[in-house]
């Protein structure tokens, strides 16, 4: 009896301890993993329309799970065996990052990740090479890892670069690991909207919050993730306009001026969102153009992250429609 207790107590301790850890994903392990890639004589690693061995015993790669059904997913979030999985290619309401489906209409509307490019023509050649990432090409651009955006960018394989992130305790986003970084963008900070409308920027009080900085030109944030985990600093890893905005166009990591036309931007806009120096505990619908905390211009103020229905990932048709510009530039209304 004593021996039985010796074995049982550690098991109970392990179960209780593990149950207290908040994981970013829930559901049965088999939803995403397979041990032998076989069940009742059928392959298990088939997400994405392929079958074979995958790193970390996964049933598919990034696209296989996040563009479920080989890119034919109907909803922006699919339920896979009880696990909710956001879909980067879908019909219906776009996610906050946009929708890679727009690449099927024009390959200059998004980041041409090779595995997602439906035309099979090495992505949108006009988008390469990237200014600060010449080693990323049309044929190796991936979702994660060395040639992508998510995960550990010191690791080449995109699945291995994401290892453990989906199971991390993400109750605190501190940017120290992939799992504790905003949307698995290692080093980036933010507030993830995981409430009633997860992965969406739904309205002024139901949206993601992005980390920004108040920084002069050539600030350290030009090298991602920069001081403070800036989302614009992250973008600047490849799009290196960020370090000298006086020469290259719109400022990033710079506060809206507290005078003239900008003072009218007081309600958060999902058409032209702003970042924050101090992230709120819950999504805020208030903007304060005071040159301080709540009104930071960022790359995502004008652009989507994955793909949009407009040229160069613009959030609106800036050639024929000033609706987005006029959010900040009230004189354009």
Pick out its properties.
disordered N terminus, two-stranded antiparallel ribbon, little secondary structure, single chain, 333 residues
What does this structure look like?
The protein has 333 residues and is mostly loops. The protein has a domain at 22-92. Helix content is 12%, strand content 5%. The protein has six helices and six strands; from the N terminus they run ααββαββααββα. The protein has helices at residues 2-19, 62-66, 158-161, 231-235, 245-248, 325-328, and strands at 77-80, 83-86, 190-191, 209-210, 254-255, 296-297. The strands form three sheets. A two-stranded antiparallel ribbon has the order 1-2. The N and C termini lie far apart (80 Å). The model is unreliable at 1-23, 119-125 and 216-224 (pLDDT under 50).
Instruction: Give me the count of strands.
Output: 6
State the helix count: 6
What's the alpha carbon Rg, rounded to whole Å? 21 Å
Which regions have little confidence, pLDDT < 50, spanning 5+ residues?
Answer: 1-23, 119-125, 216-224
Q: What order do the helices and strands follow?
A: HHEEHEEHHEEH
Please estimate the helix content.
Answer: 10-25%
Net shape: globular
Q: What is the first-to-last residue Cα distance?
A: 80 Å
Q: Calculate the mean pLDDT score and round it.
A: 80
**Major β-sheet annotation:** 2 strands, antiparallel
Beta-strand content bin: under 5%
């Amino acid at each position: 009896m004593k021996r039985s207790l010796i074995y049982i107590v550690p098991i109970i301790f392990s179960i209780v301890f593990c149950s207290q850890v908040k994981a970013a994903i829930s559901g049965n392990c088999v939803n995403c993993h397979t041990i032998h890639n076989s069940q009742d004589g059928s392959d298990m690693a088939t997400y994405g329309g392929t079958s074979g061995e995958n790193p970390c015993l996964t049933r598919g790669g990034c696209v296989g799970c996040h563009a479920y059904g080989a890119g034919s997913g109907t909803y922006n979030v699919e339920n896979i065996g009880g696990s909710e999985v956001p879909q980067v290619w879908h019909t219906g309401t776009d996610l906050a990052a946009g929708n890679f489906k727009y690449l099927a209409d024009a390959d200059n509307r998004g980041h041409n990740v090779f595995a997602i490019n439906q035309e099979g023509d090495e992505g949108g050649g006009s988008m390469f090479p990237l200014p600060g990432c010449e080693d990323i090409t049309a044929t190796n651009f991936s979702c994660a890892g060395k040639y992508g955006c998510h995960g550990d960018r010191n690791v080449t394989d995109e699945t291995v670069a994401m290892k453990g992130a989906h199971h991390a305790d993400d109750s605190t986003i501190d940017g120290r690991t992939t799992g504790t970084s905003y949307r698995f963008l290692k080093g980036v900070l933010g507030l993830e909207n995981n409430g009633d409308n997860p992965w969406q920027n739904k309205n002024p009080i139901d949206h993601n919050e992005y980390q920004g900085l108040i920084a002069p030109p050539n600030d350290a944030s030009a090298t991602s993730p920069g001081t403070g985990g800036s989302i614009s600093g992250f973008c600047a890893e490849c799009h290196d306009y960020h370090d000298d905005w006086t020469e290259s166009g719109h400022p990033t990591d710079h506060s809206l001026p507290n005078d003239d036309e900008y003072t009218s931007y007081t309600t958060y806009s999902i058409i032209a969102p702003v970042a924050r120096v101090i992230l709120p505990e819950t999504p805020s619908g208030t903007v304060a153009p005071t040159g301080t905390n709540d009104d930071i211009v960022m790359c995502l103020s004008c652009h989507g992250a994955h793909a949009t229905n407009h040229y160069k990932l613009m959030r609106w048709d800036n050639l024929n429609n000033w609706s987005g510009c006029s959010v900040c530039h009230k004189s354009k209304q």
